[in-house]
Fold these 2 entries.
Entry 1:
Amino acid sequence: MNSKEIIAKTQKYGANNYAPKEVVIIKGEGAVVYDPEGRRYYDMLSAYSALNFGHCHPEIAAAAEAQLKKVTLTSRAFHNELLCEFYERLSRLTGKEKILPMNTGAEAVETALKTARRWGAFKKGIPDGKQEIIVAGNNFHGRTITVISASTDPVARKGFGPFTPGLKVIEYGKAAALEEAITENTVAFLVEPIQGEAGIIVPPEGYLTKVREICTRHNVLMMADEVQTGFARTGKMFACDHEGVVPDVYVLGKALGGGIMPVSAIAADSDIMDVFEPGSHGSTFGGNPLAAAVSVKAMEILERDDYPRLAREKGEYFMRGLKKIRCKDIVDIRGKGLLVGVEFSQNAEKYVKKLIGGGVLAKETHEKTVRFAPPLIITYKQLDEALNIISEALSD
Ligand SMILES: *Cc1c(COP(=O)(O)O)cnc(C)c1O
């Protein structure tokens, strides 16, 4: 089938909950993908940072292939030999004592919310049913009913009520708003260290430090949703590391699956994680040996090849290139590492069209901002080529 036929068939049978760009990807290698007509593109979206390792990373693919021939699913009714390795690696990476594995980011967020509520009831002595969790405006934490109950995006919420109670929204980037919102029933603050879907919103310097301090002082859990920012994307292993801040709970996903499997998890110390007893939470596929094998290999590569440094250095290089572009509609270029947002004074759709036409895959987020987040393994030569295309597409 050609691209047109594939798109037509997709639209015929699929629910209409996405509006993909008119590009069909049939093959991917590192930072490059191909369509059925043989057109070559740079993938500058990386599946929203799930592809930090690039497409079909040979070592991760080999780990998956080897595990495919051994055992792929045991359920948690039995042990498997990979889950312990996954736990150990992720525990080391996060510095947290305990890991709880799930599959998607939204599930990890749900898990964090459940953890916070139980911790509030069991450890903080808040009557069950009274726990409050604070979230930030313009957040993106996923798509389940509870998670969208925390959303301020009308498109994500419309028609999906009733919503989960016990959530309070405050302004992002303002530590004072957190202090004001905390009550005796507050159990946690869930926050993205950089807001990805909101348009690569980098909070003011010192925000996370103040959040940490306020949470500690009020005995409230700081839960960092690093699903998009984690695993080196922003030039540090976790985006909280930019301020040397350690949250009580890390919420992780996307790149944790090495671009091959959906793998998510929360990481926290024992005094928090021990609120769970057998039967209180779980997932049939969470921690399955195939996912664990892929993830263990991905984490091994992440540390071995110093991905945070790759993202930091390439991010600076890329940012310098972007800042040379002269375009009257660009109002801001911001980000950290290889998570970069270019904000336009108007809807960015026409620029995205030009980028794709030139061979760079990107997508606007919140209409006016284009996110550039290539795989961290992109080479400097490829970055130069991509920058040429971007410059061509955006220049006046
Ligand atoms: C993508 C994302 C999620 C949700 O992950 P899914 O795997 O799509 O459920 C949660 N939080 C953040 C910050 C994300 O970027």
Entry 2:
Amino acid sequence: MVPKPLIKRSSSVNPDPQQKTQYNFSLWNIWVATTLLKILLYPAYHSTDFDVHRNWLSITSLLPVSDWYLENTNQWTLDYPPFFAYFEWFIGLFVPHVVVDDGCLELVDVGRYGHLTVYFQRSSVIVSEIVLFLALQRFINISRSLKEKKRNFVIASSIVLSPGLMIVDHIHFQYNGFLFGILILSITNAKTKNYLWCGFWFAVLLCFKHIFLYIAPAYFVFLFSAYCLNPLTIPKSTKELIGFIRWENLLKLGSVVIAVFVVAFAPFVYYGVLPQLLSRLFPFSRGLTHAYWAPNIWAVYSFMDRVLIQLVSKVPGFGEFVHLVFKLNISSESVNHTSSLTRGLVGDVQFSILPDIKPNHTFLLTVFYQAMSLIPLLVNPSFERFIASMTLCAWASFLFGWHVHEKAIMLVIIPFSFIVAQDRKLLPLFQILSASGYVSLFPLLFGSAEWLFKALFTFVWFVVFSTSFNEVSHFSTTLARRVFIIDRLNSLYIVALIPMCCFVQMLEIQSRNFEILQRLEFVRLMIYSMTCCIGVISSWNGFTWLYFLDDSIWVEKDD
Ligand SMILES: *[C@@H]1O[C@H](CO)[C@@H](O)[C@H](O)[C@H]1NC(C)=O
């Protein structure tokens, strides 16, 4: 048998200009492949969030609108804004009879459901995620050049393949995919300068999930400055100030946003349940940190407190020293109460040595850092600045906010994806953030099979998109000045995450055999939290630096 000669060079021998443009940058293949993968994940572990959403499904299907925010049979009461409730009601229309019989729609204190309910709800996540794919496909479609299209394709595929969505939506169970889809619709409209649509979609998004308030300041300033102000010159008198604002645009934008909120909230105002609704949305009675410490400033703070407790209880004289130097009150009672590092997880963190943190402290810190990032945006409302300040706003809320969930890191990573190709200097920061951010989601899942999946998936995603972003990034001329020692430290940090994850997983597996390790559950979580803190905080530092000091990055670049 004579093997056919391989005609390898045919494409270069016969360059076909059509060939390149024929590649249509479609997300369709990715959708098919990942949907199959997600279906394989149906039997995987799911968290209590699953029962939360199942309960909401039954509340909205069984009860009249007026009772949605009053019902509290199940501890997981409805605490998302109205559009999400309508969304649950809409899904409820499609529950087949067999799934109803399975216990999907029962209004009980703890859900009793079988496989069918799980399959049905998991399918609803996959179907609703189509919004994300369509929004990103549109984002790819609006590119003006082939090069930009390629870049946007990398951005889009990095988001649809995000390990965060895989872990949080398709295993842990939540509906973030389509919510980010709406955010991306809004971002796409900001890019094409359709400001009204941009505002419209963001208002819709806020009525779905209020966590997006984290980035609302960036939207507010961007839309106000880009759409409602005449190009900037400092107004000198009130008369000039009046002419300075484009009142017509302000009116249009205002009515669009208000109309959305009216549609969302009007029924609840009508039934007089608005106060209950709002108290559900903003429960300030929760503690400073979530049960598992999201990798932010307060995690570091709590960690320091724990270390100090150990020192005070183990090192003689240390307590007096701290008391003398820092004037901190240490009650021996509280130290004894909390001195064990193995103390379980408590949502409501009481500090024993460091001063307590109140909600308004966290609020002031967040607002301060957000306001800093908004000033350059107000002066120069370019698309790039807008996305960068959105990223910084989410970051500030994540680092300094009250009761932050680890999942909120997605709110930083996804906007960041849109600007990472803007300059090669941003890539190391993105790498550190995405590596530490996604690794910090690992403790959400239990089970060895899940561990293998999340670790492998995140690793492959990281390698693929590090190289792809590297290929499509703009190179700036000042690249030579990059500090190489910092680059080396970055890589070292990212590589070190691998043994960290393996080590913690080994502890977890061994804890089945050794009782002493079981009591260290909290230490395992703390190792994750502290390691990821380093990444999230240091990449925030670097990003802030570039945001304020390197203006050349935040302008539209020609290809
Ligand atoms: C994107 O463009 C392709 C081909 O040009 C078209 O078929 C598709 O419908 C567009 N998709 C969206 C979401 O705009």
